[in-house]
């Protein structure tokens, strides 16, 4: 039995509402950079001043920057890392949800003195506003849910800050997000930060890594894969969104159809164990937050599905939950990891 998961309790807490975020070009733009079918516009202002005004459209909202932001908050370690990779380490005035995942050592060294605004949840409204950011970068729109006590996008705007949400985390994009959406974020943020060259290098590296995986998998017989999220006794299937695209990019054949009615409104759906058994996957991919959660989930899968090929053949693939968040370089890491564990002889 498959039952659609309520948008109020998804695996990564994102909810569906609002329009698809894309980039648009301003009317008199002398310079337009494009990627993934979208564009960044930089307008040269008359009279000099700060030089260029960079405008992007994000989650249906237009953001404009007359100068590179000087006070930035990363709302998740994955976003903090991306900002550092894009050359914004010295502009960070806060980092949030720091216990969700560990930063790479080189990034952790550069952010050691950046104030921590929260550890395991988005920062409270007053804590985020006290950091006086002019740019807040987030993986999803959940981090701006006023009902949860977080600063809303409008409240940030009233305090002089703009919010950039990962393209794949825009609520109306969440179920159709793709791994390559991170390339749009790299381009957008690179333009906003005035780090276009750094962004181009980072994007080229990401594209090359994905291309290497694609080349390695040329001609392989695709294995069937079930992607699940386990929380206690709750079992959810991942059938759409960036998570499903990661499986596709890694060469897996998802046993859950993104076009099925269960995934029409959301990328995850609650399932019974019988659904997994009936689909007989050759591999199971599951997300974890730490070694303890990996052990518990692995034990559950082995005990619940002993006769499924994924268990019999030892293809239970644990992926860091943070690698599945929209707008993170971890998406590329996940593609590489899953493909290598599915097809070790291809690498």
TrEMBL record:
The keyword Cell cycle does not apply. Coiled coil: none annotated. InterPro entries: ABC_Transporter_SBP, ABC_transptr_periplasmic_BD. Keywords: Signal. Residues 71-346 form the Fe/B12 periplasmic-binding domain. Residues 1-34 form the signal peptide. It holds the Pfam family Peripla_BP_2. The keyword Signal applies. PROSITE patterns: FE_B12_PBP. Belongs to the bacterial solute-binding protein 8 family. PANTHER family: IRON(III) DICITRATE-BINDING PROTEIN, VITAMIN B12-BINDING PROTEIN. This is ABC transporter substrate-binding protein. It comes from Nocardiopsis suaedae.
């Amino acid at each position: 039995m498959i039952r659609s998961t309520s948008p109020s309790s998804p695996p990564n807490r994102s909810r569906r509402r609002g329009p698809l975020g894309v980039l648009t070009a301003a009317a008199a733009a002398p310079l337009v950079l494009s990627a993934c079918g979208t564009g960044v516009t930089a307008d040269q202002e008359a009279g000099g001043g700060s030089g260029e005004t960079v405008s992007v459209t994000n989650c249906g909202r237009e953001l404009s920057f007359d100068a590179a932001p000087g006070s930035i908050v990363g709302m998740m370690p994955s976003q903090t890392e991306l900002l550092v990779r894009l050359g914004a380490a010295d502009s960070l005035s806060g980092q949030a949800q720091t216990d969700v995942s560990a930063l790479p050592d080189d990034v952790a060294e550069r952010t050691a003195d950046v104030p921590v605004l929260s550890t395991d949840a988005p920062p409270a409204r007053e804590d985020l506003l006290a950091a006086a950011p002019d740019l807040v970068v987030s993986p999803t729109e959940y981090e701006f849910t006023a009902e949860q006590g977080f600063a809303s996008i409008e409240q940030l705007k009233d305090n002089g800050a703009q919010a950039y949400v990962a393209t794949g985390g825009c609520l109306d994009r969440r179920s159709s997000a793709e791994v390559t959406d991170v390339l749009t974020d790299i381009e957008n943020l690179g333009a906003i930060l005035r780090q276009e060259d750094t962004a181009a290098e980072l994007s080229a590296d990401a594209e090359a890594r994905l291309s290497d995986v694609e080349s390695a998998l040329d001609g392989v017989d695709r294995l069937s894969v079930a992607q699940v999220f386990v929380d206690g006794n709750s079992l959810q299937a991942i059938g759409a969104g960036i998570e499903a695209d990661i499986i596709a990019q890694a060469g897996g054949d998802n046993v859950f159809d993104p076009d099925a009615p269960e995934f029409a409104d959301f990328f995850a759906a609650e399932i019974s164990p019988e659904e997994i058994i009936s689909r007989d996957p050759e591999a199971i991919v599951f997300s974890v937050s730490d070694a303890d959660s990996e052990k518990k989930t692995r034990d559950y899968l082995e005990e619940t599905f002993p006769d499924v090929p994924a268990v019999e053949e030892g293809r239970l693939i644990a992926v860091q939950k943070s690698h599945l968040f929209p707008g993170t370089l971890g998406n590329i890491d996940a593609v590489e990891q899953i493909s290598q564990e599915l097809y070790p002889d291809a690498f």
